[in-house]
Specification:
By secondary structure, the chain is mainly α. It has one domain. Helix content is 70%, strand content 0%. The protein is built from seven helices and no strands. The radius of gyration is 18 Å and the shape is elongated.
Length: 128
């Protein structure tokens, strides 16, 4: 009986790990923009640039980018999740700090990076 429970538990862990990977891949592909571009947008928002200027700058520097003006506007609100596996650890920490500042700058709810660290979507999907 105990072996059956362990086997089910192992299968469930594999299923949950695969589910997290699919979720991360889906959210990353849906965004169509790199983590570095998200950081660029956050930095320029904090510098006071309007979204159309940010969009034009990205399109001029990297014409192959799939960014649209609407995506820049959405990301400029701080509403964009970049996963830890997309960036180097130092850049990811920089992203988390910038996201918190953008939330505060835009008048959103207070941002608590400790809650992100405790979020199972982030912590479990990026620990691999």
């Amino acid at each position: 009986m105990e072996n059956v429970e362990k086997e089910i538990n192992i299968h469930k862990q594999h299923y949950l790990a695969a589910k997290r990977e699919r979720r991360v891949k889906k959210r990353t592909d849906k965004r169509d923009i790199t983590g570095e571009e998200v950081i660029f947008i956050f930095e320029k928002v904090l510098a006071g640039w309007p979204t159309i200027r940010i969009f034009n700058t990205i399109k001029q520097t990297t014409p192959a980018s799939a960014v649209t003006k609407k995506k820049v506007e959405v990301i400029a609100t701080g509403n964009c999740k970049v996963f830890e596996n997309e960036l180097e650890p130092a850049r990811y920490q920089h992203y988390l700090e910038l996201r918190g500042k953008v939330y505060e700058y835009r008048g959103g709810r207070p941002y608590n990076p400790a809650l992100v660290a405790e979020d199972p979507i982030y912590s479990e999907s990026t620990s691999n």
